[in-house]
């Protein structure tokens, strides 16, 4: 065709890349490697939204750029396909989630290909494939054997509407109370048997490992806060008139003399025993009410302070002072020891609480006049800063920092206190009562049968047990030969109303016999084999996404999760691109598993993602978040129909810096379309043949040459740092320059097309072919620039007489003052204004102006 007809060009080249395996990565090729990873999508029924092609265009362009530079590039794609939406659809329609998943994956694959994303599809992974989740189960097996998995009856969020338990992070704190993030349904607390992973054992390493990562600072900070490392002390108080003691966690042992009351969480084990008879009723009522509130809600700083006195008092170990013990929900059982010493003078929440209930406030840190006071010299808000200790017995006059240790030492002498480190991070609730997830490769046995089983199937140091109908059952792990453990067919995908997974109804699957020596299973009884019951929970969606980047390196290996030689060859991803919404959970869980895989020698580096980049959110034209309800959703498919994939890709990258949040603007895409048509016309003439001016010259004129070399330099640098928007601006300058140049060496045109190829690969391949080449443009390498061609070697100098413009000339950039003035005087018009006059002054502004003052 003569015209730029993207609708025929684009499918042609998409088919070409697929048929020629252009972007398949070759293991062990003798080249430097570059592994660029995208966060793989959940293949939803809705198809791609505009957020997908943003990050994916960046990675696709980077991949093409790096390959042209000579790297062996790995850029794979796959599917995070277990999870709730597909299961919800199954519950509604009865369609097996595997069928829905297959359809959705086919649709996503088509859409991604239409955008020109040339992944290495030979390495495609799908978390729901048995060949994949065999290894998810295998990793769980390692955790189990290391004692990092256990079962606990836990009060967890249960959503009756979704019929499932939710993780804390799936629950939102709303004005109507806690609700599910998905679907916005009410949720409640229920005790349910759960698998839990001991991520807390890795808390210290997960904090320390952040230091060397090239990640956005904000994301590192989010992880840090989520893990929440606090240095402080545990201090033990006697309860007056009781045998019991109350231990608190505090980050401010220096304020111990200012403790005027204590607070224990409503769930604290001492609540019942220390509460006095006359306070029982009020305390019990308060405890009951607290049950309906989420930790988030309770920890809210701004919330009204509530609480009741237990009637009991505690004795401050440093001064013997008796202070009341309250129950209040702003203290959480899940943090520290579930009890605090309250120092209202120096803690914001304690201050509000003390004001609310008229409790004593004693200042023990001198604020140096910084805190606001009332007429009587009392604090009107907590002073939380540092200062000298006052009202603090033998510690008085010390500064608050050094007093922290001094107080701990003072207490340590009689075992009343010790330094401790606390983490906000909780163990990871790792099960769901759902169908569409990885089955746990776990069997439950009676104690007598468990005793017969080989140790290699046990968590030897910390046996995992749970009580079912009064009997204690023991967990063993299936041997590798039994993996993958696949999901059974079930009649209904709906969890039972008591929170049990649909798997609990799969009778034939549920009950098995095992060989105690090997762990082999059978549905038939065999000699010496013992009965067992399968675990009916499934793993959460996070499981499969915790390690998928490793599987791309060796996706078809049936003997190992990853071949060690391939692992060493490719290493971990050189760049991970994905949304900031995964800043905490996915990225933390993946780091946790990677550390474990490192510990057991599967990978050679403890951290999985050295460099991370978040693409910014694309807002609607109205500047609001795109959403169906606002009606401002941009559909990538309709843009491709009207403008083509190259235009969409360029436009997405031209919207602004990749990391910035930016609004969509449909009008802007017109400019991009014009740029592409101009590029087409640079090569293809009206009659469909090559433009005659191509090859008409051996060299460019100096100005065009300068622009071209500047463009090669800028685009090369910008692509390397994902600065695509500025690279595009420079290419726009370049195309305008090339378009107005009369005769062009073929190489100049080809260099420009090569620069454009990573972002607009279809048009680039087509023009490359029309320029007479065979094969993909990516094989032609990357243009080089010549630093010496970048200097502007001539400048335009303005000539003035008495400050008025009288002419100009193009002079060498380094022209001397004398030569510039001479050139001005040689100018005919200038001569007309100075002839016959006396020259009083000659001024030269270097590189700009000559001004002659003549009277
Ligand atoms: C006395 C004190 C005085 C405190 C003071 C603070 C300031 P981070 O930094 O988050 O670790 N605390 C301890 N356990 C708690 C729980 N289970 N629920 C609610 N609050 C709890 O915070 C530690 C501080 O939070 C601790 O130090 C304790 O209050 C409170 F001027 O102890 B502090």
Automatic annotation (TrEMBL):
Reaction catalyzed: tRNA(Leu) + L-leucine + ATP = L-leucyl-tRNA(Leu) + AMP + diphosphate
E.C. number(s) listed in UniProt: 6.1.1.4
Main localization category: cytoplasm
Domain Methionyl/Leucyl tRNA synthetase, chain residue ranges per copy: 39-172
Domain Aminoacyl-tRNA synthetase class Ia stretches: 591-653
Xref: Gene3D superfamilies: 3.10.20.590, HUPs (3.40.50.620), Isoleucyl-tRNA Synthetase, Domain 1 (1.10.730.10)
Keywords assigned: Aminoacyl-tRNA synthetase, ATP-binding, Cytoplasm, Ligase, Nucleotide-binding, Protein biosynthesis
Cell compartment(s), UniProt: Cytoplasm
Residues annotated for ATP binding in this entry: 628
Superkingdom as given in the UniProt entry: Bacteria
Limits of the Leucyl-tRNA synthetase editing domain: 224-411
Motif interval(s): 'KMSKS' region: 625-629
UniProt-recorded Gene Ontology molecular function terms: leucine-tRNA ligase activity
Domain Methionyl/Valyl/Leucyl/Isoleucyl-tRNA synthetase anticodon-binding: 706-816
Family: Belongs to the class-I aminoacyl-tRNA synthetase family.
PANTHER family, A to Z: LEUCINE--TRNA LIGASE, MITOCHONDRIAL, LEUCYL-TRNA SYNTHETASE
Protein name, per record: Leucine--tRNA ligase
Protein source organism: Coraliomargarita algicola
Gene this protein is translated from: leuS
């Amino acid at each position: 065709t003569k015209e730029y007809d993207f609708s025929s060009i684009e499918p042609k080249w998409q088919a070409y890349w697929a048929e020629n395996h252009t972007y398949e990565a070759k293991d062990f090729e003798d080249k430097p490697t570059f592994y660029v990873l995208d966060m793989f999508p959940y293949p939803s029924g809705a198809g791609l939204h505009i957020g997908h092609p943003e990050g994916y265009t960046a990675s696709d362009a980077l991949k093409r750029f790096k390959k042209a530079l000579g790297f062996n590039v790995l850029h794979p794609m796959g599917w995070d396909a277990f999870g709730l939406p597909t299961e919800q659809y199954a519950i509604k329609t009865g369609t097996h989630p595997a069928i829905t998943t297959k359809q959705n994956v086919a649709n996503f694959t088509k859409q991604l290909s239409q955008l020109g994303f040339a992944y290495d599809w030979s390495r495609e992974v799908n978390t729901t494939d048995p060949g994949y989740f065999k290894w998810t189960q295998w990793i769980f097996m390692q955790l189990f054997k290391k004692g990092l998995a256990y079962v606990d009856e836990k009060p967890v969020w249960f959503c009756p509407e979704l019929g499932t338990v939710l993780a804390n992070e799936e629950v939102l704190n709303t004005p109507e109370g806690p609700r599910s993030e998905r679907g916005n349904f009410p949720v409640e607390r229920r005790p349910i048997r759960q698998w839990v992973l001991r991520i807390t054992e890795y808390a210290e390493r997960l904090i320390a490992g952040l230091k060397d990562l090239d990640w956005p600072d904000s994301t590192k900070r989010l992880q840090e806060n989520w893990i929440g490392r606090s240095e402080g002390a545990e201090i033990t108080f006697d309860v007056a008139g009781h045998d019991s003691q109350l231990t608190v966690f505090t980050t401010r042992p220096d304020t111990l003399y200012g403790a005027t009351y204590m607070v224990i969480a409503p769930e604290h084990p001492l609540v019942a025993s220390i509460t006095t008879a006359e306070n029982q009723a009020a305390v019990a009522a308060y405890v009951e009410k607290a049950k309906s509130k989420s930790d988030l809600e309770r920890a809210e700083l701004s919330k009204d302070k509530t609480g009741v006195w237990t009637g009991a008092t505690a004795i401050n170990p440093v001064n013997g002072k008796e202070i009341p013990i309250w129950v209040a929900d702003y203290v959480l059982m899940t943090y520290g020891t579930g009890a605090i010493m309250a120092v209202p003078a120096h803690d914001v929440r304690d201050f509000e609480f003390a004001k609310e209930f008229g409790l004593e406030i004693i200042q023990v840190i001198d604020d140096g006049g910084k805190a606001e006071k009332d007429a009587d010299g009392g604090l009107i808000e907590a002073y939380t800063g540092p200062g000298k200790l006052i009202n603090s017995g033998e510690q008085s006059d010390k500064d608050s920092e050094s007093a922290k240790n001094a107080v701990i030492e003072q207490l340590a002498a009689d075992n009343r206190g010790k330094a401790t480190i606390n983490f906000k991070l909780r163990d990871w609730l790792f099960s769901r009562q759902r169908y569409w997830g990885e089955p746990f490769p776990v069997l439950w046995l009676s104690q007598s049968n468990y005793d017969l089983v080989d140790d290699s199937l046990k968590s030897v140091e910390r046996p995992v047990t749970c009580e079912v109908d009064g009997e204690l059952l023991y967990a063993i792990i299936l041997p590798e030969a039994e993996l993958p453990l696949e999901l059974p067919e079930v009649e209904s995908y709906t969890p039972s109303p008591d929170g049990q997974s649909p798997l609990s109804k799969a009778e034939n699957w549920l009950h098995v016999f095992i060989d105690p020596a090997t762990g082999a299973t059978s549905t038939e009884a065999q000699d010496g084999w013992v009965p067992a019951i399968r675990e009916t929970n499934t793993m959460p969606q996070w499981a499969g996404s915790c390690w998928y980047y490793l599987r791309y390196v060796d996706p078809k290996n049936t003997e190992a999760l990853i071949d060690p030689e391939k692992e060493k060859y490719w290493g971990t991803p050189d760049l991970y691109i994905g949304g900031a919404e995964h800043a905490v959970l996915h990225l933390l869980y993946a780091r946790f598993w990677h550390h474990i895989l490192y510990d057991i020698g599967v990978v050679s580096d403890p951290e999985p993602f050295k460099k991370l980049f978040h693409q910014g959110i694309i807002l609607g034209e109205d500047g609001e978040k795109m959403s169906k309800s606002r009606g401002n959703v941009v559909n990538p498919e309709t843009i491709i129909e009207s403008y083509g994939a190259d235009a969409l890709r360029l436009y997405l990258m031209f919207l602004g810096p990749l990391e910035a949040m930016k609004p969509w603007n449909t009008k802007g895409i017109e400019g991009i379309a014009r740029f592409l048509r101009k590029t087409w016309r640079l090569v293809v003439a009206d009659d469909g043949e090559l433009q005659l001016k191509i090859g008409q010259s051996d060299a460019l004129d100096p100005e065009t040459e300068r622009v071209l070399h500047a463009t090669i330099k800028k685009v090369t640098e910008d692509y390397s740092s994902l600065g695509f928007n500025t690279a595009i601006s420079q290419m726009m300058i370049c195309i305008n320059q090339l378009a107005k140049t009369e005769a062009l060496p073929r190489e100049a045109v080809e260099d420009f097309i090569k620069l454009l190829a990573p972002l607009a690969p279809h048009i680039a391949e087509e023009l490359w072919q029309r320029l007479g080449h065979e094969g993909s443009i990516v094989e032609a390498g990357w243009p080089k620039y010549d630093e010496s061609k970048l200097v502007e070697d001539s400048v335009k100098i303005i000539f003035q007489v008495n400050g008025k413009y009288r002419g100009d000339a193009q002079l060498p950039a380094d022209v001397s003052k004398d030569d510039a003035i001479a050139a001005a005087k040689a100018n005919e018009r200038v001569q007309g204004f100075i002839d016959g006059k006396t020259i009083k002054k000659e001024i030269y502004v270097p590189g700009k102006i000559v001004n002659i003052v003549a009277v």
